[in-house]
Every structure is written in C-alpha cells, then in structure tokens.
Design brief:
15 helices; mainly alpha; 383 residues; globular
C-alpha cells in the first residue's frame, strides 16, 4: 500500500461530501464550492493504483477473470446496499409528505419525492451502467463515478492483456486513451469538466484514469532524493489547489486540473517527502481507509439533513454541517466494518478459488497432472 495515496483519497472524499448539500459557511470556501473536481483526483489515483498493482499480472484469461471479480467485489456490495437505502429514505420521505397533505400541510414544492425516481434509474444502477450514459443518473448520485470506473477497469484489463507482448507500448496506449477522453469531454457542450449529466461522464473517467495509469511507468525512470521530491510535492500541491480555486472564475482550467492532480499523485506516490509524510498521519489514514464508504454513504444522509436544515439560519446551518460530517464518519465506520471488509474478503476468496481451479484444469488438459488428481485436490482456505 502507498500510504500517502490512501491519505490523499481520504481528504478528497471529505471534500466531495462537503461539496454536496446545503449552502453554509463551508460551501462559501472555494475549495469546497469547487469540490466536485476531487472526483477527478479519485480517477487519477485509481488509475495509478491499478497500473502499479496489476500491469504485470494479467497474463492469462484466468488472471483477467480474477481481476474483474476482485474489482467487482470491491465496489458493488456497498453500491447495492446504498441503492436500497436511498430508495427506502426516499419512500419514507414521500410517504410523510403524503400524510402531511392529508392533514392540510404541504412540505416542499412537490407532493412527494419518491415518484421522481424512475424504474429505468433503478435498473441502470443495479447493472452499473448509469455512469456510462445508459439510463438516468438518479438515486445515489455520486455512484455515477463508480459505474464509470468499473467499466474503465474492464478497458484497463483488456489493454494490459492484449499488450503483454509489447508492454513498453502501454504508456502510449494509455496516454492515447486519456487524450481521447479529454477530447470527448470538450464535445460535451459544457464550459467545464462537470459533465455528469451530459452523457459524457465515462469519458471524464477515462481521461483521469488512464492519465493515472501512465504514472507508474514514468515513476520507474525517476529516482529523486528527499529535497527533490519535497519540492516536487509542494509545487504539485500548490498548482493543484490553485487550479481548483480558479475553477469558478475560469471554467476552462478544470480541463487541465486532472493533469495537475497527476503530478501530485506521482509526487506523493514515493511515500516520502514533506506532503507525503503529512498524508500518513493517523487521522488522515483513517479517512483514507473509510474513503469509499464516505463517498458512497454521504448522499443518503443528505436526504435527511437537507430537510432538517431548511428552517435554520446561520450559525446553525454550519453547526449542522459538523453534525452531518460526524454522521457520515460514523455510518462509514459501520459500512466499512460490516459491508466493505467482509464482502471484499468473500470475493477475494472466490477469485482465488476460481483461479486455482482454472489453473488445475489447464494443467490437467496439458497432461501435467492427471484428471483424477485434479478432481480430488483440496483447496486450503484463503486467509
């Protein structure tokens, strides 16, 4: 594990969770107001990590199958749970509004929230295609990026598998895909990179992901000392933050922000240096561990808090933000412990069993072991 990247992911998750929701003192801060850009930091980090771990491991179809199972098990269980959590919250809120109407009280501009969730959105979410332009982006809105990312994983696995004979060309292939992604984003018709509802959101993921995937190949060529890497980290950090702060006034800068994020990810990936060490302190590492749960659960909590805040003024709106963040962290600890960890382990064990059984079948077919031996082989449990 690269601990600095884990910490960076945690900070990004908290900023995205603060970006969503009601206006308060927090959202008046530019880095929070433009916090949607940190989703692109997620994409760059994911691309880096996938390339760092898997670029030399997907040699056979069995390897690819194992990779797909592991990535699916990492993302889908919590996504599946949150679909139904949001549906239940929405249904309860819609029902409470209907009951209020019976007694002559109208809550909000619409009679109920639940009817605005379409069956097509539920199906698209269940099959994780809403982030690639198939079906509306509704329910747990942030999950659009998870949908886009899992399909990008498939593309990544294909590029690794089919380039095994010429691994030196991968960086050119990945940079080419990244460039195609940013070109497609330009054609979305939006003045900035916030193209979630335009149907081009998958290309935004491809842009950042394959940019990140190229970085480990560059990293092999660079061996900095402490002073050099610290200087690189500070510069990359200042440029990244500067571009995020400029996003509102200069929307075009958002198209180059992922490039700055790529520089920051590369800089801290060495896991030493001033900023890398700061990202390794325990509270930030805890945020990193919980980052996926933070990202996936905060929207459902907003369904509750956004209604609680309506009658409030400052400073109570900001104080409720503190309660909201505490609630997000508390729920994330629960989902991490009871959903993420056990289901990730189950899918990893399943991937290991599939990999072993296919390997034995291949060896049996090649005459390396007898069919009888293959049929009685016992697999030890995976720890």
């Amino acid at each position: 594990m690269i601990y600095a990247l884990e910490g960076l992911r945690g900070i990004a998750a908290i900023i995205v969770s603060l970006y969503h929701g009601w206006s308060s003192v927090a959202t008046s801060i530019k880095i929070v107001r433009n916090g949607w850009l940190f989703v692109d930091l997620f994409f760059v980090i994911s691309g880096f990590v996938m390339s760092h771990v898997y670029r030399d491991k997907l040699h056979t179809k069995t390897d690819v199958s194992s990779f797909v199972i592991r990535r699916f098990g990492r993302l889908y269980p919590l996504h599946f749970v949150m679909i139904f959590v949001v549906l239940i919250f929405s249904f309860l809120w819609g029902t409470s509004k209907d009951i209020a109407l019976l007694f002559g009280h109208k809550i909000g501009p619409n009679p109920a929230y639940f009817p605005h969730i379409h069956l097509s959105a539920i199906i698209a979410n269940l099959f994780m295609v809403h982030g690639i332009g198939v079906g509306p982006i509704e329910l747990n809105i942030p999950s659009w990026s998870i949908s886009a990312e899992i399909w990008t994983y498939f593309a990544f696995a294909a590029t690794v598998f089919y380039s095994n004979r010429a691994p030196g060309r991968r960086i050119f292939l990945w940079l080419f895909l990244s460039i195609l992604g940013i070109i497609a984003c330009f054609f979305s018709g939006k003045p900035d990179l916030n193209i979630v509802f335009s149907g081009f959101s998958w290309f935004r993921c491809i842009y950042g992901f394959f940019l990140g995937a190229s970085l480990p190949l560059l990293k092999k060529q660079i061996k900095p000392n402490f002073v050099q890497i610290s200087t690189f980290q500070v510069l990359a950090f200042l440029i990244s933050i500067g571009l995020v702060l400029c996003a509102g006034a200069y929307p075009w800068t958002t198209f180059i922000t992922p490039i700055a994020f790529a520089g920051l990810v590369l800089a801290v990936s060495y896991d030493f240096g001033i900023i890398a060490k700061a990202l390794q302190i325990r509270p930030i590492q805890t945020l990193g561990k919980l980052s996926y749960s933070i990202y996936m659960t905060h929207w459902s909590l907003l369904l509750i808090f956004s209604h609680l805040v309506k009658p409030l003024d400052e400073p109570y709106k900001s104080l409720l933000r503190v309660v909201y963040v505490a609630a997000v962290l508390g729920v994330s600890m629960i989902t991490y412990r009871w959903i993420e960890v056990p289901w990730r382990s189950r899918f990893h064990r399943y991937a290991d069993r599939i990999g072993r059984s296919k390997k034995i079948a291949e060896e049996s077919g090649n005459g390396l072991i007898s069919r009888t031996d293959a049929s009685v082989t016992q697999f030890p449990p995976t720890t």
